[in-house]
Amino acid sequence: MNKGRISAILVLIFSIAVISCTGHRSGGTKKGGGTKKFTSTSGWKPNDQKGWFFTGKKAKIKAWPNMVFIEGGSFTMGLVKDDVMHDWNNSPRRMQVKSFFMGETEVTNYEYREYLTWLKVVFPPTEEQYKYIYDGALPDTEVFNNKLSPNNFNNETYLFAPEFSYYPVVGISWLQASNYCDWLTDRANEKALMNKGVLSKDYYVNEEYNYGTKYFDLESYKLNDSNVKDAIDTTRLAKQLNIRNTNQRVQKANQATRSGEVAPFRLPTEVEWEYAALALPGDREYNAYQGKPVVQNELRGKKGRERGFYMANFKVGRGDYSGIGSFGNDGADITTDVRRYQSNQFGVYGMDGNVAEWTADVYRPIIDDEANDFNYFRGNTFKENIDNGAGGFEKFEDEIEYDTLNNGKLAYKSLPGKYKKETITDNTNFRDGDRMSWLNPRFEDDNFTGMTTDSLGNIIDDGGAGLVKKTDSDTREMYNSPTRKFYVDEKGRVILEKDDEARTTEISDEVRVVKGGSWKDPIYWLDPGQRRFMHQAEATGWVGFRVAQDYQGGDSGKTKRSKTGVNKRK
């Protein structure tokens, strides 16, 4: 054996010895893969029968009924072809989306009727203090009407007729859709807690709880509010969870009132909606997408009776909404059943056509991906409960606050029994170009010194100098949008007054992003990259909505990697 080879072997042996000694001194290196068994640094194990801290068992997270898991990822948001409308509001940009749950379909007439029925039972319109709650939640009945068509079909027929039960609800403003999401959060958590034996199943049979401010509210439940704590069935809970002693019963009950069983429902953000509509992971190879689909080619059926027919509901051409009689291109002149056509690769129905949909975002022509390229959303407003000075928080009782919709109806801002909120931080205009986007809203120039402004940029403190109040147009020239003023006509109806002032834009902080095409739109608008806007108090017959939820967990290890197609969940 030559000297060079002997030297190499000696070096290798020495290296192994050093690594072994290092591993011995530090306790060695354990194989990764996540925490399987855990003992706290305090020495106690989770949920020790003799202990005092109960974390609950780690459960597999499942989607709530009619919700679909959307695994997040990176994608190109916006248009990747010519902007023929010259809107210049959807330039391509790279964006990361966190995993979330998306409604399998748009909210249907059936589901919205369920919401309306609950409002009518719990807050009877016959009671003076509640008379606007139910009425203000109703869809606009006139959205199908046209000045040059007979008004023999209205949205009230569409909403309540059994034939349309599983069609998407329309005539709903963004404000009403948001209220529905809040209601759904409470009802889903209520049902989940009843199923687990935490809440009594005769909750609504008990006269003490079935009207007015006595109803299940998730926030009150979390705060152990007297409004709902009496409904917790601690005896049944103890039996169901096999709790052996009083101490554990108290701890388990306290744990139950600290968290919701179902993640809150909300409107999807624009970036979530577009990502779910594209379903790009369904057409990839390893870590590369094979390209965005061409809408026209993807929408035609390829097999069986559907071959050659459009598999989405949109306006084919002028005067052609469905094709000829008994041989329709898409078979629907207005809306259609939310599951009429096949789902996309994520298992989500109706992202192409039928109705366009509200998203949560405040609309701006530019998406500021330089400021944020992860889970983008414009409209963050942080609020907190108002201290009542007696160890609790203020609530709405009979003094209900309302928003005025464009049709003159009053939509409640919060139901009686809910906690009052105050805005702590409003990031709607962050990096947006107006005065409130500045890092320091206090400003100085030749005419104004030492001033403090409110959320609209109006001076609220002139430092005793007697300065003239700055106007809205002075401070927000970027968004010189029409004002919304209402008057009451001779019949007592609330009418939106037309703004005749010269305006430079329709964009304001109350304008929301609308995504997708509808039964009334040409195929151009079916591209998920397209975006439009509408005032949050407005409603039409071609815009509906679906709900979304945050995914309560990390993404790592939730899917099995595969060469192509949508990843399979474990």
Count of helical regions: 12
Strand content: 5-15%
Radius of gyration: 29 Å
Mean pLDDT: 79
| Stretches with pLDDT under 50, minimum 5 residues | 9-29, 234-244, 441-476
The biggest sheet amounts to: 4 strands, antiparallel
Please provide a written account of the structure.
- The protein has 570 residues and is an alpha+beta fold.
- Among the domains are: 197-260, no CATH class; 430-508, no CATH class.
- It has 12 helices and 24 strands.
- The protein has a 4-stranded antiparallel β-sheet with strand order 1-4-22-5. Strands 20-19-10-21 form a 4-stranded mixed β-sheet. A two-stranded antiparallel ribbon has the order 2-3.
- A hairpin with a 2-residue loop joins strand 8 (323-324) and strand 9 (327-328).
- The protein is globular and about 75 Å long.
- Mean pLDDT is 79; it is low at 9-29, 234-244 and 441-476.
Please render the helix and strand layout as text.
Elements: H1 3-26, E1 67-70, E2 73-77, E3 93-97, E4 100-103, H2 109-122, H3 131-137, H4 155-160, H5 174-195, H6 218-222, H7 226-229, H8 234-240, H9 246-256, E5 265-266, H10 270-278, E6 284-285, E7 288-289, H11 295-298, E8 323-324, E9 327-328, E10 356-362, E11 381-385, E12 402-404, E13 410-412, E14 421-426, E15 452-453, E16 459-461, H12 472-475, E17 485-488, E18 494-497, E19 511-515, E20 531-535, E21 543-544, E22 548-550, E23 559-560, E24 568-569
Parallel strand pairs: 10-21
Antiparallel strand pairs: 1-4, 2-3, 4-22, 5-22, 6-7, 8-9, 10-19, 11-14, 12-13, 15-16, 17-18, 19-20, 23-24
